Amino acid sequence: MKLKHIALALALLSTTAASALIKSEWADKVTPENVWQQYPRPNMARADWQNLNGEWNYAITPVNSAKPAAYDGKILVPFPVESQLSGVEKRVGENNELWYNRTFKVPSAWNGKDVLLNFGAVDWRTTVWVNGVQVGSHEGGYTPFSFNITDALRKGENELTVRVWDPTEKGTQPIGKQISRPNGIWYTPVTGIWQTVWLEPVAKTHIAGLKITPDVDAKELNVKVDAPAGIATVEVLDGGKVVAKGSAPAGQNIEVQMPADMKLWDTQNPNIYDLKVTLAQNGKTVDKVDSYAAMRKVGMRRDKEGVIRFTLNDKDIFHFGPLDQGWWPDGLYTAPSYEAMVYDIDKTKDLGFNMIRKHIKIEPALWYEYCDRNGVLVWQDMPSADIHGGFIWQNHNYFRGPEKGRSEESDRQFRSEWKEIMDKFHNYPSIVVWVPFNEGWGQYNTKEIVKWTKDYDPSRLVNAASGGNFHYDAGDIMDVHNYPAPRIYLLSDDQANVIGEYGGIGRPVEGHVWQDTDNWGYIQFPTAEAVTAEYLKYIDILRDLAKIAYTGAVYTQTTDVEVETNGFMTYDRKVMKVDEKKVAEANRKVIEDFSQK
After folding, report:
1. Which CATH number fits domain 209-293: 2.120.10.70, 1.10.10.10, 2.60.40.10, 2.10.109.10?
2. Where does the pLDDT of residue 159 fall: very low under 50, low under 70, confident under 90, or very high at 90 and above?
3. What's the average model confidence in pLDDT over 495-518?
4. Structurally, what CATH architecture does the domain formed by 298-593 represent?
5. Model's pTM, two decimal places?
6. Which long-range contacts (CB under 8 A, 24 or more apart) does 504-510 make?
């Protein structure tokens, strides 16, 4: 969203403890004993694991302080320290560090095994000790990471200590929409552990990762098993029956020939194949994991009218969905529960959409699995980085002009985290578009970044800069933003044309707002009937634009977020602010009219 619109809509607002005013219905059901109990890595699952979510000790100390001798209190992991559900609701800031501490015991059944300590995501720079021994560190706020802690373990009780530093916008790392002084489209900062922490036992030689890539034209499923040694075998199952199989040395591509009648994945029939992956040495299985895959092909083609259309499995498809921020009034980055998290996806489908633009945030792996299994397309944004040191929306010279410069450190951080995101989420078939930049927010070296992204993952489309004010004929998509109504003001003859943001129809609902006053939308209406009428007016415009150019559209947005009240739902998810049936009928009609039967 463009700051020029915000400047016209409101003055700077400072969000403080307003979060205490509202929370979702799932928040009251959260306890230290039941918090996020789902196995967190569905695409490479092991049966044996130990969940470390729950109450930990925490302390906030000045940067570069020694490990605290005493802790400030308890924090509920995996909720960020600034959130209601953490039980703390305190800011940390760039001059302080956040410490976590707890004890755990390794089950006796794991004797003789290596033990991995896994983090779903921690924002931002993480250092970890087990029994006073530093076992590793990680930079990046959005991706899972693991440490082998075997050598640091002792019998009986073990002590786990985690230190996190997060400068938010005072640094140059990817932060998405976090800011130290929330206002308008910028939200409460998130610091520390915000996804599940868990332990798992593995063999000395074990599977460290999988890379799964479908090739529909060749009827092959390509699987690369990351392991230091051994023979890897992949079995493909349909309904519990093995229908394909392949083997190769670890680290080499396994070309699994799929059945002649293989089932394709699409939004109407999201067919999933289960995978069983084993690693053997000297004829003996040393590790095994469960996974899944889908056979789908993402592309574009020019239709008979000359309009470039998105395709899925070589059939035209109109991508239509909401801008989904993924924020919660009670958990901020972290949904109160799995049920809460998938509710937003279910409501998106109920509203007749077939796509979600995941806006400058990454979700837990379970979110993408749910999209995979329910046939939802995903445009995945890279969280914006290094955007508050200068102009965010730089100028309106759409095709020329200097891009934002970056320091070597800023460039290193961006590339490192973007590569890690593409690596960690490569296997989820619902992701069909990568979006390196949003608008002009930290946009730099566009052509090079886009080429690198496309070369690194040719199985997906690349949207160089959604709404970017610099369009360099890079990537597969020309994406413009316009509020409130959709319109065309730039077109490409060689790229798919989309409107990557429009709408933003606001409606504050008393008792369901982040703060009592100064809420905003690009335009505002007092009733569901009025919002729905305006929405349907935009649908008629969009339909006309799709006839001549557009092959995808993104409406702002799924839910209200903090002072933004332009969602289909209130921030607490307790009120649907439009006529759901009328909206769903209109949305489905757009998709049906511009998708190949």
Report:
1. 2.60.40.10
2. very high
3. 95
4. Alpha-Beta Barrel (3.20)
5. 0.95
6. 504/1, 504/556, 504/557, 504/566, 505/531, 505/534, 505/535, 505/566, 506/564, 506/565, 506/566, 507/531, 507/565, 507/566, 507/577, 508/565, 509/565, 509/570, 509/575, 509/577
